[in-house]
Specification:
246 residues; mainly beta; Immunoglobulin-like; 2 domains; seven-stranded mixed sheet; seven-stranded mixed barrel; 1 helix; 10% helix; 59% strand
Length: 246
């Protein structure tokens, strides 16, 4: 009996203490939860398309699971040009990387510096948002395309092949290289210099065999197109593993 009385007294004091806490604090403390917010970060450089009509910028973003993306946007601006584009972020809880192509709504973009920003707005009952902005370096993008066919020349001592290159105005073409090989026995190199004016230019390059003789049939081609801008070198690359020599 005495034990029952003691237990009832303990329960009464415990309940009184709990009631006092609820009156003072309004509720029991909840288990701590991580803040459910998105994150977005911009890269430090943007790639200028050869015609200047767009730039490509890298965006790294994440948002917590089970949230809905309302808006995910990237924008780039220069004094003469600006534009924005969305990117397809989904809320998985993990970081995702996007190469966002931002078209100009005005004049062409140019090499140099630009102001870039990115923002994410998400919703799950309430809304949360995040953003980032940077002054980024706009660098040349070099597009290069190696033809599917090469023509046999000089009894197999060389082949000729077409290479199409485009690079932005303001960058300068540098000596560039193409290699054509057949198996382990035959290989050769050729050189060309890109013309950078925003348009495509096709070069017919002679590739002299440095070992063996080229034969009609399958071949492997690889080219690097180099340009210079602001004292730095940039390149485009194309590889063709199913080239045919005729």
């Amino acid at each position: 009996m005495k034990g029952d009385v003691v237990r009832r007294c303990v329960r009464m004091f415990a309940f009184a203490g709990l009631a006092g806490f609820l009156v003072a604090g309004g509720a029991l403390p909840a288990t701590a939860r991580p803040v459910q917010t998105p994150t977005v970060e911009l890269g430090s450089a943007a790639g200028l398309a050869p015609d200047g009509r767009s730039v490509s910028i890298t965006v790294l973003a994440q948002c917590p699971e089970r949230w809905t993306v309302v808006e995910a946007l990237a924008s780039v601006s220069q004094p003469q040009a600006s534009g924005q584009a969305s990117f397809p972020l989904t809320c998985t809880g993990s970081f995702q990387s996007f190469a966002v192509s931002v078209p100009s709504s005005g004049n062409p973009f140019e090499l140099g510096e630009a102001h870039a920003s990115a923002s994410v707005l998400i919703k799950r009952g309430r809304t949360e948002q995040a953003g980032d902005s940077e002054v980024v370096t706009v660098e040349p993008t070099v597009l290069v395309d190696l033809a599917d066919k090469a023509l046999l020349q000089d009894g197999g001592e060389a082949v000729s092949i077409d290479i199409t290159v485009a690079c932005p105005a303001g960058s300068n073409g540098q000596q560039s290289y193409v290699n054509v090989s057949q198996g382990q026995s035959t290989s050769g190199n050729g050189v060309y210099v890109p013309i950078c004016d925003g348009r495509q230019h096709t070069f017919t390059v002679k590739v002299q065999a440095s070992e063996g003789l080229f034969q009609p049939g399958g071949a492997h081609g690889l080219t690097f197109a180099f340009v210079e801008a602001g004292g730095q070198s940039f390149s485009g690359i194309d590889e063709n593993t199913q080239m045919q020599i005729e």
